[in-house]
């Protein structure tokens, strides 16, 4: 028996996005009534509607079509942004979809990075300088000096960070001198050829020393190395001046530090401190009598620095002294630089509290280094009165049961550190100092190699193993960082896949894009304040390989690299997703992939893009009129001349609703009962084209006023469209499926289904 009166069911929004088939019976979930089973080539707006994704605009081919490429943004300020194409041994710079040129040639900067290194690159930017970490090579600096002047160089540390002190008391090193080029002799096997170019810090205990000068006229003493405290004493009867002079450049130049004057009536006794290792000497200018002067240095621990120039064997090396050594005595207190070919180089970077921070290297995978405050390339530690100064460099280890490696760092109110096994924070509420840094363990999921994406005060990251996407952020309730699995209801989108890239576009719809290893694009509409987490996915004629969002005026421009087959060639195109204007004119939209456009002064039959898409099945929009799919040949021309012609690759949107449900009725659930949907009412905005039915095999076209197109008028429709669905019999699901494959926009705000339920 069939109920005589049909039931009208509305789906007023789609903000639950695409869910898995396994969720198709979860009618108990609040999100169920707002969900879709399929949202292919569609995007969910945060306020409810679902719309066909925009097409992509062709920019050009990347340098090497068969190799992986990384995209990264270089944003000088809110109004000036560039796109970096980073491939094997090169960086190419793009602006507004076009490559930059200098002296008539593309700007291609040579790099040491191989294809396998690209996934390990991490970046942090300060105005016009981008620091690049790789783990395998010294930290690089990409600097923009002018639009046509870009330079890549190694970061030149004022003082690098150093590793742990040597713990073998028998492994001493004895220098042959204190300055210049010297010989280092080790008591054990220490030196290897890979150490050439590395720096060492050598600590030596320096005894106090006194230099005496008996002056009756102008005279100078030899220099003393002062580590901290000095003292001068004079005696005798004399007239003139006694000057204590100070040198910070190993005696190349001298400045007066103290001056004492006597006319047969004064003998000074004074002590003082220096703020860094330096040389002191006495200069006497005596006009009468004899002055006996003693200048003394107090005992201290001296830190000197050398760079290895050559390795003779495992116990002998030649070095250049970068900062004067304390003496020529052997010492076991020495350190290698933390970053080197032997130890590896920093893996990640961030700016936090006006310090440049680096995280992890091969030798110290869990170590965090912070530069001196305000001095980004200086990792030295200064002491005053035996105490480390607050602005000195900071070093901290993330202590855990397993030796996890730091993968990423992200900065908001706190410094958030992601390892491959857990997440840590360093609080930003208090100023970080060498004596005040407390890493706090948060979550224990671990992050993959894909850089996290910050959205407001939340961070989206790909969990270790690359198939779960999570968010995290500070919670007042738990006084810690926690979040959720954003893929929980859409496991079909990530199951058996690896996420290989991601990007976030804040405007216009707060969208996250994730590239999968098999070439699809996952799209997540994410608005935490409204609890909107809505998935969809994109497919194209080819494979998505990389994605990057770059600031562009009032919106974000999302660039993609797509691998496509053109004839017998496999190429990789750089493209960007076209903007979606709020326009009533169909010709203002780009709804085809790898699109090329030609606007002419006069109408012709010529078709653009033959040098790019020759041999491909394309769609053409000429003066707003759609020409059916055709294979683009050298001889192809338009049937009618046109002034504005767009050509590109077609793609199809598929939107499917889950099982229909009306909640609990007097007779129980509607699930499992036979039902049929005879009519659907679509609430559309600026739309044209499409078809609807119970499945892909049974569909009716959505009918519009085609005569308006023949007259050259605007055809995009806004309002309700009532469509009778094909007669397809009864089933227990009550689903509705919409497809759209023409190069026009399609914006769906709601669906009303006329459902008849079997008795």
Concise structural overview:
The protein is mainly beta and 759 residues long.
Question: Helix tally?
Answer: 2
Distance linking N and C termini: 5 Å
Indicate the radius of gyration in whole angstroms: 35 Å
Q: What percent of residues adopt helix (DSSP H or I)?
A: under 10%
Largest sheet at a glance?
6 strands, antiparallel
- List how many beta strands DSSP finds: 65
The low-confidence runs, each spanning 5 or more residues with pLDDT under 50, are none
Please report which band the strand proportion falls in: under 5%, 5-15%, 15-25%, 25-35%, 35-45% or over 45%.
over 45%
- Specify the structural class: mainly beta
Overall morphology: elongated
Q: Whole-number average pLDDT? A: 91
Task: Give a written overview of the molecule.
The protein is mainly beta and 759 residues long. The protein is 1% helix and 51% strand. The strands form 16 sheets. Strands 1, 5, 6, 60, 63 and 65 form a six-stranded antiparallel β-sheet that branches. A six-stranded antiparallel β-sheet has the order 19-20-32-31-21-33, with no helix packed on it.
Task: List the main descriptive attributes of the protein structure presented here.
759 residues, mainly beta, six-stranded antiparallel β-sheet, 2 helices, 1% helix, 51% strand
Topology summary:
Layout: E1 7-11, E2 17-18, E3 35-36, E4 38-40, E5 42-44, E6 50-52, E7 56-61, E8 70-77, E9 80-87, E10 90-95, E11 98-99, E12 101-102, E13 105-106, E14 108-110, E15 122-126, E16 129-133, E17 140-146, E18 149-154, E19 173-175, E20 181-186, E21 199-206, E22 209-215, E23 218-220, E24 224-226, E25 229-235, E26 238-247, E27 255-263, E28 269-273, E29 278-289, E30 291-297, E31 300-313, E32 316-323, E33 334-336, E34 348-352, E35 355-359, E36 367-370, E37 383-384, E38 387-388, E39 394-397, E40 406-411, E41 415-419, E42 423-426, E43 440-441, E44 453-455, E45 458-462, E46 469-475, E47 480-482, E48 499-505, E49 511-516, E50 521-527, E51 532-538, E52 543-552, E53 555-566, E54 569-577, E55 593-606, H1 610-613, E56 617-622, E57 625-631, E58 637-649, E59 653-656, E60 675-687, E61 691-693, E62 699-701, H2 706-710, E63 717-724, E64 737-740, E65 747-757
Parallel strand pairs: 2-3
Antiparallel strand pairs: 1-65, 4-59, 5-6, 6-65, 7-54, 8-9, 9-10, 10-11, 10-14, 12-13, 15-16, 16-17, 17-18, 19-20, 20-32, 21-31, 21-33, 22-30, 23-29, 24-29, 25-28, 25-30, 26-27, 26-29, 31-32, 34-35, 35-36, 36-39, 37-38, 40-41, 41-42, 42-43, 44-45, 45-46, 46-47, 48-49, 49-50, 50-51, 52-53, 53-54, ...
């Amino acid at each position: 028996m069939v109920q005589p009166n049909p039931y009208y069911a509305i789906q007023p929004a789609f903000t639950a996005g695409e869910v898995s088939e396994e969720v198709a019976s979860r009618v108990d979930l609040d999100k169920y009534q707002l969900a879709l089973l399929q949202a292919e080539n569609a995007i969910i707006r945060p306020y409810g509607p679902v719309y066909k994704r925009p097409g992509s605009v062709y920019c050009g081919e990347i340098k090497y079509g068969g190799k992986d490429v990384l995209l990264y943004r270089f944003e000088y300020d809110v109004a000036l942004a560039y796109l970096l194409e980073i491939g094997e041994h090169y960086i190419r710079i793009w602006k507004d979809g076009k490559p930059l040129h200098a002296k008539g040639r593309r700007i291609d900067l040579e790099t040491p990075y191989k294809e396998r290194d690209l996934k390990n690159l991490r970046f942090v930017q300060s105005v016009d300088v981008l620091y690049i970490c790789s783990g395998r090579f010294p930290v690089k600096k990409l600097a923009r000096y002018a639009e046509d002047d870009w330079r890549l160089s190694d970061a030149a540390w004022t003082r690098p960070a150093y590793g742990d002190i040597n713990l073998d008391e028998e492994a001493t090193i004895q220098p042959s001198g204190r300055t210049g080029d010297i010989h280092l002799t080790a008591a054990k096997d220490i030196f290897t050829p890979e150490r050439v170019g590395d720096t060492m810090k050598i600590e030596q205990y320096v005894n106090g020393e006194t230099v005496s000068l008996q002056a009756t006229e102008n005279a100078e003493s030899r220099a003393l190395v002062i580590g901290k405290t000095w003292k001068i004493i004079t005696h005798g009867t004399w007239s003139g001046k006694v000057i204590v002079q100070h040198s910070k450049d190993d005696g190349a130049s001298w400045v007066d530090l103290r001056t004492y004057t006597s006319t047969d009536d004064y003998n000074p006794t004074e002590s003082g401190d220096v703020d860094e290792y330096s040389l002191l000497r006495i200069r006497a200018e005596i006009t009468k009598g004899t002055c006996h002067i003693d200048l003394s240095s107090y005992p201290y621990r001296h830190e000197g620095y050398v760079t290895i120039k050559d390795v003779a064997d495992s116990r002998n090396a030649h070095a250049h002294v970068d900062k004067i050594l304390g003496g020529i005595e052997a010492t076991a207190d020495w350190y290698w630089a933390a970053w080197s070919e032997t130890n590896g180089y920093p893996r990640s970077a961030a700016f936090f509290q006006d310090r440049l921070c680096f995280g992890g290297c091969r030798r110290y995978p869990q170590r965090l280094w912070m530069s001196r405050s305000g001095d980004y390339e200086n990792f030295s530690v200064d002491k005053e009165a035996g105490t480390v100064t607050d602005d000195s460099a900071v070093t901290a280890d993330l202590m855990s049961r397993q030796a996890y490696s730091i993968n990423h760092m992200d900065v908001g109110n706190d410094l958030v550190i992601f390892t491959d096994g857990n997440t840590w924070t360093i609080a930003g509420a208090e100023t970080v100092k060498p004596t005040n840094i407390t890493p706090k363990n948060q979550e224990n999921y671990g992050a993959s190699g894909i850089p996290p994406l910050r959205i407001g005060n939340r961070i989206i990251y790909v969990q270790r193993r690359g198939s779960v996407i999570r968010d995290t952020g500070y919670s007042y309730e738990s006084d810690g960082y926690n979040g959720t699995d954003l893929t929980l209801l859409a496991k079909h989108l990530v199951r058996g896949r690896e996420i290989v890239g991601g990007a976030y576009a804040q405007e216009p719809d707060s969208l996250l894009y994730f590239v999968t290893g098999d070439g699809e694009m996952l799209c997540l509409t994410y608005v935490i304040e409204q609890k909107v987490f809505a998935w969809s996915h994109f497919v194209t004629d080819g494979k998505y390989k990389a994605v990057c969002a770059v600031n562009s005026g009032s919106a974000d421009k999302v660039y993609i690299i797509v691998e496509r087959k053109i004839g017998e060639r496999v190429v990789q195109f750089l493209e960007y997703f076209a903007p979606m204007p709020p326009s009533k004119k169909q010709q203002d939209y780009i709804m085809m992939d790898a699109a090329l456009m030609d606007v002419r002064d006069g109408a012709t039959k010529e078709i653009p893009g033959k040098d790019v898409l020759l041999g491909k099945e394309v769609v053409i929009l000429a003066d707003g009129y759609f020409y059916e799919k055709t294979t683009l040949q050298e001889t192809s021309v338009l049937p009618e001349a046109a002034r504005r012609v767009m050509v590109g690759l077609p793609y199809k949107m598929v939107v499917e609703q889950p099982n229909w449900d009306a909640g609990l009725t007097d007779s129980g659930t509607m699930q499992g009962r036979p039902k049929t949907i005879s009519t659907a009412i679509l609430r559309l905005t600026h739309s044209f084209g499409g078809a609807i039915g119970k499945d892909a095999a049974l569909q009716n076209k959505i009918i519009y006023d085609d005569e308006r197109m023949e007259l050259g008028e605007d055809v995009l429709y806004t309002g309700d469209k009532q469509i009778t669905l094909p007669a397809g019999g009864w089933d227990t699901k009550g689903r509705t499926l919409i497809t759209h494959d023409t190069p026009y926009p399609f914006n769906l705000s709601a669906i009303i289904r006329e459902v008849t339920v079997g008795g």
